[in-house]
Design a protein that fits this description.
The chain has one domain (about 25-185): Jelly Rolls (Sandwich), CATH 2.60.120.10. Helix content is about 10%, strand content about 40%. It has helices spanning about 25-40, 40-45; strands at about 1-5, 55-60, 65-70, 80, 85-95, 95-100, 115, 120-125, 130-135, 140-145, 150-160, 165-170, 175-180.
Length: about 190
């Protein structure tokens, strides 16, 4: 299911008066987009919520980016993952989410198991209206730790997600478990 949203501001005109090619949105521009989208109360209220599992609706993001509105029942999460070569941003529109992330640049290919060094773990509490932008190969997990309240968030990625790598984690050991392609989640 896809809901149309107005794209970000149009590309500036070139000196000759023709439209310039659309530039790739930066992580900061994606954060601005998710912030503005999360302020659309009617859109946020339109997301069907399921008490058992996450729900999502694809949105039109700015400049060819991929965007999603996601509902999080109490006690749900993503597991550890990254978004490969995409930059991104997400913001909590309602409720509260927790993001656990790694403050370390991981190798992008050719490994199955890594031992993480001490001190790489970061945790962010993202209450309604709070979000963050991130760069390529950002490894994180997002959780709704509430026992009674749904959370809703808005996400945007550019380029559109080429893949998601899923990881398991035991202590300081991070293990690549699965690589998903767009046809796996769309």
């Amino acid at each position: 299911m896809s809901l149309p949203l107005s794209p970000a501001s149009p590309s500036p005109a070139t000196d000759s008066g023709r439209e310039a090619a659309t530039h790739a949105p930066t992580a900061a521009e994606l954060l601005d987009f998710v912030r503005r989208t999360a302020e659309d109360a009617e859109l946020i209220a339109s997301l069907p919520l399921d008490p058992e599992g996450r729900t999502w609706v694809r949105l039109e993001g700015p400049a060819g980016s991929e965007a999603w509105l996601i509902g999080w029942p109490p006690g749900t999460g993503t597991g550890w993952h990254d978004h490969a070569d995409s930059v991104g941003a997400f913001l909590t529109a309602s409720g509260e989410l927790i993001e656990n992330s790694l403050a370390a640049r991981l190798p992008t290919d050719g490994w199955q198991t890594l031992e993480l060094t001490e001190g790489v773990d970061r945790t962010r509490q993202l209450t309604s209206g709070k979000g963050r932008a991130f760069g390529r190969h950002h490894v994180h997990e997002v959780l709704n730790e509430s026992v009674s309240e749904h959370a809703i968030s808005v996400h945007a990625y550019y380029p559109p997600l080429p893949q998601i790598r899923r990881y398991s984690r035991t202590g300081q050991i991070l293990r690549l478990e699965q690589v998903e392609r767009p046809e796996d989640w769309q």
